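User: tokens in, sequence out, please.
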């Protein structure tokens, strides 16, 4: 299976978020973990780029093959953006920085 075919099959996967008491977060449909630290985690999902902000965030389980991620810590916000706007913001910021 080529990378393109695999990515297309990932698109057919479901995406869900389960948040328990703002302390345990389970996310399915994850394609890639872009970045994470104790205050912010950025995931690429089949539904777009998901940004999780909080305190003492930790990735407990990561299985990108299955598309499942488990996170613990205090969650303050969860937000989506599409890949195009996420990439454009990064390019714009870096472009300004290196002028």
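Assistant: Sequence out:
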């Amino acid at each position: 299976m080529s990378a393109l075919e695999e990515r297309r099959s990932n698109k057919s996967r479901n995406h869900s978020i389960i948040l328990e008491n703002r302390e345990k977060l389970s996310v399915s449909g994850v394609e890639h973990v872009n970045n994470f630290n104790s205050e912010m985690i950025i995931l690429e999902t089949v539904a777009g780029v998901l940004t999780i902000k909080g305190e003492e965030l930790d990735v407990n389980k990561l299985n990108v093959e299955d598309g499942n991620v488990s996170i613990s810590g205090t969650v303050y916000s969860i937000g989506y953006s599409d890949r195009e706007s996420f990439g454009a913001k990064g390019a714009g910021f870096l472009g300004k920085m290196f002028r």
